[in-house]
């Protein structure tokens, strides 16, 4: 199979390297040689760590799509503008497409998969979610007997790396983010990572293949890690929890929860101990029960591992009748469900609340009364010691599961108390299993 590669950055160069190094083994698996014939790059003269011997370098990615000798176009440019045009162009030209671009699929997946279905070509995207972990294949094929109940995952390597390094080494946020960028983990615009957007792109894709719903990125609740403070990480640790950026997709009687936010997870859970760039995805199926998938979620060769696996899959299935291929999103495109995505206020979770209170009698009574009025059941309440010479104390409350709208109402009332001078910190808490 002849491959045309669009983009020779972190993942593109890893793909060239893995294909070159494991060429023979890959050919023995795929039944045919898979070779990169041409690649497009913005800077043709740039010195690269990877050997490009035998690969024709061109500036214009559209020229690669137009070549009749290219069977598969691999899109590794990123973003959802040029990449969308190129992917649609490749499909229209009858090429199969492999991409690791979650932003593109979460926003334009419906259009892209429809175009591919009409043209009878494949669009493979294992690299788009949790890097090297074969989670798309696992959910779409390995767990296909199950009614998936929920998914909870650490699906952004950059954020997990930042949280781990802040907690373990006490390093400042900005310094760790710069290191994640240097290591090739972060998106071109790292705001996509730290604001939770990249995790929401991936969660959108996971929810679609798990529940048989259309991609609905615009309905996902997205909260990143930029407002997390060292003090909450420390208090959580003291209470037996770790804070992780989780993507959660869950079926309920009323609809589907689709949410990305920092989450307290009991420290004894396996997923709480996933550190650095590693990702982990918990999938609960009705027949299999809980399953956990773990591995590198970002970086050059881990992501290339998924891209090359897709190339092998496409090579194996290229001559098969399109009707007999696994559907792109696991479910037949004409059998998608219109079950609604729940607004965040309707979601149920437990909560960690931290308030800074004036050290006066009756403050705790006021706060607990507000919670009781709103039927919020308190699991534990801790008052931290005031610092030397301070007349304010931190109060930490852990609640039982309750609807988010009740917690928001309680926070509003607590913040209006004269004894509470600053905003209440709210972090969701999930026991998970
Ligand atoms: N870096 C990672 O760990 C992972 C990245 N991804 C996804 O893979 C894709 C690529 O990511 P990276 O390799 O990290 O990005 P990158 O920024 O390292 O590489 C992108 C490459 O595309 C080139 N490019 C940009 N515009 C171009 C154009 N018009 N024509 C030709 N080339 C152009 C750039 O010069 C750059 O070399 C993105 O969609 C990203 O979200 C997915 C999983 C992991
Ligand atoms: N920026 C992403 C790269 C992989 O998808 C991440 O940090 O996880
Ligand atoms: Na993957």
From TrEMBL:
Q: Which residues form the active site?
A: 202 (proton donor)
Name of protein: Homoserine dehydrogenase
* Source species taxonomy: Bacteria, Pseudomonadati, Pseudomonadota, Betaproteobacteria, Nitrosomonadales
SUPFAM superfamilies in UniProt? ACT-like (SSF55021), Glyceraldehyde-3-phosphate dehydrogenase-like, C-terminal domain (SSF55347), NAD(P)-binding Rossmann-fold domains (SSF51735)
Q: What is its EC number?
A: 1.1.1.3
Which gene holds the coding sequence for this protein?
A: hom
- List the source organism: Usitatibacter rugosus
Task: State the Gene Ontology terms under molecular function.
Answer: homoserine dehydrogenase activity; NADP binding
Sorted alphabetically, the keyword list is:
Amino-acid biosynthesis, Methionine biosynthesis, NADP, Oxidoreductase, Threonine biosynthesis
Q: What does the entry list as the binding residues for NADP(+)?
A: 6-13
Which stretches are transmembrane? none
């Amino acid at each position: 199979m002849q491959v045309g590669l669009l983009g020779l950055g972190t993942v593109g160069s890893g793909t060239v390297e893995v294909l070159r190094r494991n060429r023979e083994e890959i050919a023995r698996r795929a039944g045919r040689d898979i070779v990169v014939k041409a690649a497009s790059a913005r800077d043709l003269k740039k010195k690269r760590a990877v050997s490009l011997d035998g690969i024709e370098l061109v500036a214009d990615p559209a020229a690669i799509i137009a070549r009749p000798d290219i069977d598969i176009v691999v899109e590794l440019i990123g973003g959802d503008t040029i990449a969308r045009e190129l992917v649609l162009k490749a499909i229209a030209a009858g090429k199969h497409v492999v991409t690791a671009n979650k932003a593109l699929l979460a926003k334009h997946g419906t259009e892209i998969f429809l175009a591919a279905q009409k043209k009878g070509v494949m669009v493979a995207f294992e690299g788009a979610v949790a890097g090297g972990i074969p989670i798309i294949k696992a959910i779409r094929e390995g767990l296909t007997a199950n009614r998936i109940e929920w998914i909870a995952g650490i699906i952004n390597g950059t954020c997990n790396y930042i949280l781990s390094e802040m907690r373990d080494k006490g390093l400042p946020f900005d310094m760790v983010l710069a290191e994640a960028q240097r290591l090739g983990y972060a998106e071109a615009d790292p705001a996509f990572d730290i604001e939770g957007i990249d995790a929401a792109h991936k969660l959108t894709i996971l929810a679609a293949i798990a529940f048989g719903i259309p991609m609905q990125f615009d309905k996902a609740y997205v909260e990143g890690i930029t407002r997390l403070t060292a003090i909450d990480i420390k208090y959580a640790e003291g209470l037996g929890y770790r804070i992780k950026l989780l993507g959660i997709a869950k079926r309920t009687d009323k609809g589907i929860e689709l949410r990305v936010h920092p989450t307290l997870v009991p420290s004894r859970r396996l997923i709480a101990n996933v550190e650095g760039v590693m990702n982990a995805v918990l999938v609960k199926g009705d027949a299999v029960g809980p399953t956990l998938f773990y591995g590198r979620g970002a970086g050059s060769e881990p992501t290339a591992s998924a891209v090359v696996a897709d190339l092998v899959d496409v090579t194996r299935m290229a001559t098969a009748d399109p009707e007999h291929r696994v559907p792109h999103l696991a479910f037949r495109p004409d059998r998608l469900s219109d079950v609604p995505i729940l607004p965040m206020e309707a979601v149920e979770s437990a909560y960690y609340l931290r308030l800074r209170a004036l050290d006066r009698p009756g403050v705790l009574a006021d706060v607990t009364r507000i919670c009781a009025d709103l039927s919020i059941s308190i699991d534990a309440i801790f008052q931290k010691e005031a610092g030397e010479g301070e007349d304010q104390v931190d109060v930490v409350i852990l609640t039982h599961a309750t609807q988010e709208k009740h917690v928001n109402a309680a926070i509003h009332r607590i913040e209006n108390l004269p004894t509470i001078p600053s905003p209440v910190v709210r972090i969701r808490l999930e026991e998970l299993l």
